[in-house]
Amino acid sequence: xxxxxxxxxxxxxxxxxxxxxxxxxxxxxxxxxxxxxxxxxxxxxxxxxxxxxxxxxxxxxxxxxxxxxxxxxxxxxxxxxxxxxxxxxxxxxxxxxxxxxxxxxxxxxxxxxxxxxxxxxxxxxxxxxxxxxxxxxxxxxxxxxxxxxxxxxxxxxxxxxxxxxxxxxxxxxxxxxxxxxxxxxxxxxxxxxxxxxxxxxxxxxxxxxxxxxxxxxxxxxxxxxxxxxxxxxxxxxxxxxxxxxxxxxxxxxxxxxxxxxxxxxxxxxxxxxxxxxxxxxxxxxxxxxxx
Amino acid sequence: xxxxxxxxxxxxxxxxxxxxxxxxxxxxxxxxxxxxxxxxxxxxxxxxxxxxxxxxxxxxxxxxxxxxxxxxxxxxxxxxxxxxxxxxxxxxxxxxxxxxxxxxxxxxxxxxxxxxxxxxxxxxxxxxxxxxxxxxxxxxxxxxxxxxxxxxxxxxxxxxxxxxxxxxxxxxxxxxxxxxxxxxxxxxxxxxxxxxxxxxxxxxxxxxxxxxxxxxxxxxxxxxxxxxxxxxxxxxxxxxxxxxxxxxxxxxxxxxxxxxxxxxxxxxxxxxxxxxxxxxxxxxxxxxxxxxxxxxxxxxxxxxxxxxxxxxxxxxxxxxxx
Amino acid sequence: xxxxxxxxxxxxxxxxxxxxxxxxxxxxxxxxxxxxxxxxxxxxxxxxxxxxxxxxxxxxxxxxxxxxxxxxxxxxxxxxxxxxxxxxxxxxxxxxxxxxxxxxxxxxxxxxxxxxxxxxxxxxxxxxxxxxxxxxxxxxxxxxxxxxxxxxxxxxxxxxxxxxxxxxxxxxxxxxxxxxxxxxxxxxxxxxxxxxxxxxxxxxxxxxxxxxxxxxxxxxxxxxxxxxxxxxxxxxxxxxxxxxxxxxxxxxxxxxxxxxxxxxxxxxxxxxxxxxxxxx
Lengths: 291, 322, 280
Prior knowledge:
The structure holds three protein chains of three kinds. Chain B has helices at residues 2-25, 29-54, 63-79, 84-106, 111-131, 133-136, 158-180, 183-193, 195-200, 205-231, 241-254, 259-276, 283-297, 302-321, and strands at residues 142-143, 149-150, 153-154, 233-234. By secondary structure, chain B is mostly helical. In chain B, strands 1-4 form a two-stranded antiparallel sheet. Chain B has a two-stranded antiparallel ribbon with strand order 2-3. The radius of gyration of chain B is 20 Å and the shape is globular.
């Protein structure tokens, strides 16, 4: 019992990270209909930036945090301007390969800037772990889950309640119609990118203290983020969030109770099951095209 | 019609002559080795090109079939001592069977969903290679794959292996050509041009996609077989997600829906890392940049892109001349 | 010879089948029976309890204002959509369980409202794909190129060229279909549909985008197709074409069948006039 609670704690913690990654991906998809295969690299950038700014340069944590997020946003902006917007034929397959290229590129840059060795980052607060029902709950976990909820809530509020956010959704539904009503659809695309990559960086910042950070950490995290987004239903924010938590918990339970070797496979088995059984995702009514 | 046939004959002859020339003319073992790898990658690209370029279905997990081919032959001939040629038959049948089972539900998906489905499949297979260590040797790899022999001919020498691989490529090219010019090939291309219309004229699109998925899996398995017996050591990394991506890139960069494009793409993606070895640290940056730049400016692939530029400049020259 | 008898027969039966044709009587000689067909999209009823039948050999016009559900009806007859209730009988057999390609093999072909040729393939290849259900060779045939495969291929090509000649497109045979002018593409779609040797051909707005000369040529083509004993249904907004060529007209409005009968009967029908003019 105690073990299971412990697995649950760690599952929810990693799940929250997946949730943040999935929310970023999902948000970008719902406003630009694009899947960014380089998303995991922005998570990596966030983690590496906090290593440099907080650990090495010893800046105060809030400042380092803001710096890392700003870096994520700026790189996202650059990426959108230089690589996505310039594409001659923006077909999905072409865009996917461009983002794959970007992911390799960013990993290469990170390898030169930070080297190949992994870094560790201390926990954000130096409190002792809390004991609940015999299982230890790390303060970092609370940080992570809190941040994930805040971030998803913020993006939800932005998309549903603010004019800019609504305009962004309108662009995704019908770009031309949105443009005709006077929405600057191009600016919306950039904004969506910046918010999405910024949220990726946030995920990276929070994951840094609970794992080792290195230049190649992004790919797997990005892929797991996809799985989470798909499980919840592509384009649905809370679906992505729930998908992330679910994935984290199942992974942690699977690794603990069955075999740690199969941990990585769980995400993908889940993904296939979802695609075969309800391709629209668990939490979305929209049906995927299966024609 | 006849012009087309003549053109194909000349193309095939030139291809054969180039293979013979390279095989007999090049003595450097390193170069022979690189060219052999190009051949293996061309096989992979050819198979995927049939699926992506002609049928218009993306697969982000095709390295799985490459790996299934390699591991099946490695286990059967390495662990159990079965003749590699019998192992080849098993490897291909195994890949085709798995492609059938996986393709049945997966190929009903489309767009990003198909991409994610194939990606998931590829990842699961790769994790299996890594974790099933009693059989596959785990992440440290599989050692002790025997070399190929056919009667008195040993494929130990680089030159013999080079010819073996490229003869297989030649056969594969001919096979693809035959399929494409047949009833099946036409139906396949019609899916790419418009799946709804294709369905409406009576093409059983799902079955056809499944068939071509199985065919490309078979080519992948053959490539895996050749790879395993060539390097005689395999590890899960050679069949991971990045390899799947590389395969897609070969097809796209070379130009989809073109048999020679597959050759070009495979050559470029094999040579590039070798050339970039000199840049050591910058290899990934340059590779990523090239991928992005080609896709941004020549989305139809280098073959078509370069032809376009050539034709464009010739037109401009003409105008200047006038 | 066969055609003549079919024609005479269909004229006879036309008289008996007017607006009050009882739904539950199945006459085995009807090529198509549509019974109580209903289809909803979300909350919108696209088809509401539609019933009619088509006798072999006739041309049946399907008219109605935009959004009346004509294309939806086509999509249900061809098996692309499944009806929520009701059924479609083709040659007396229910089609509910048949896949689209099986229906094509059984003899239902169609053209599209917006041309959907295979743009990168030549016109000849387009027609050859249309012949898909009437040819057999598959993967092994393609790979081995057995004599029977080559024979089949040669025969298919000859037949395809015949069809192109029939539709007046011979000169474009080796051009990519996407490069043809719109008028020719419309004709090419008919050629491709005919390649599957249909018994029932559904034409979705064949005259849309055609100029008057092309429309006239289309009318003549439809007449010649009819002489080949192919039953046709056509959705058409060009009234002079639809009324001139149809033996029978069905009027749909907002998913409901408004009227059915000879062109003359329909033109004088009060409800039809209201649907077209009253609300204008």
